[in-house]
Design goal:
Elements: H1 29-42, H2 59-65, H3 68-84, E1 89-91, E2 100-102, E3 109-111, E4 118-120, E5 125-126, H4 133-140, H5 142-159, E6 160-162, E7 169-171, E8 178-180, E9 187-189, E10 196-199, E11 202-205
Antiparallel strand pairs: 1-2, 3-4, 4-5, 6-7, 8-9, 10-11
Length: 225
Amino acid sequence: MICTDTLSLGQFPDRRPTTKCKHDGDICRHCLGTWIASEFGTKIWDEIRCPVCPALMEPADMEEFAPSDIYKRWNDVSIRATLESTKNWTWCGLKSCKSGDVHDPRYPKFCCKVCNKAHCITHNVAWHKGETCSEYDYRKNKYLKRAEELATQKLMRDTTKKCPGCKRKVEKSYGCDHMTCTKCKHEFCWQCLAEYVKNRRGRMIVHQPGCVFHNPSFEPEVLIY
């Protein structure tokens, strides 16, 4: 880009567009500013180059030659990018607050030193006071809550049964299938709920059909009452 209009020397900068340029400074301030504005609208903020050579525009070049509104926007983007490249940099979660700070990601609660507001960096919401992140998830995620409820119900079905004697729920955590209710002392088979009864040989049980212990050829003796 070279200006072809007849202009006074005062309309040209007194130096090259960048400190790395090797060519003459034959671009007027207006054309250079227009070029920078166009490049800022189409390029990444740190890829704006001289209109004549590949030299990148540096902060001092942008401040001197860019239109004031473009420079302000460029400077804001530049500062934001620099901060975000800082390890563990975290922005305040309050939209009206433009501050931030370095924050240890192991701790989800971020307290802004400018607006004094706290927010959760895990969920990007205002801090859920009185709740851990897991508790917040549980409260907010109704599908997760329902899934856990169903899992609990299944666990109850798989590990507990009603005692045939007192109807109290009995849990089996280990051991054989000969159960004794801790409340009413009723003895029964965990698999089929058949009752253990007394005969001349002591304790016995007639398992229900379908039970893994059922013996179709077994004939129980007369019970003793």
